Description:
Layout: E1 11-15, E2 23-26, E3 32-35, E4 46-50, H1 52-55, E5 59-64, E6 69-74, E7 83-89, H2 97-110, E8 116-121
Parallel strand pairs: 7-8
Antiparallel strand pairs: 1-4, 2-3, 3-4, 5-6, 6-7
Amino acid sequence: MMQAKKIKHDVIGITETRRHRPLYAVFETGEELFLGICDSIGVGGVGVLVYTHLAMNIIDSYESLTTRIGRLRLRRCGSTPALTIFVVYAPASSYDEEELEAFYMDLEEALQRRPYLLQGHRR
Length: 123
């Protein structure tokens, strides 16, 4: 959280949360934190930290679709259209082919709706 204060942000995607239970927290600053869960061996987990002015006005929902894909939905606000932001933590290329294929199939399924913004970490 201290690092987030150093960055001008609206939404920060977070990966490798390694939580075994989901977490939702509202801070005194008004920021909202949504964290999903990791898999059984402690890998993965994604979430978002949402800045105050967005948190108070246009958050519709946050959902962990898988342990590596999270979805933040923002409501329409005036002339600004509704938006979906995905936080994605892709497996490293060293993972076996079946796991990689399953991840990309999950991602493709998640991205069927538009408009969206995809945020992730590339290895």
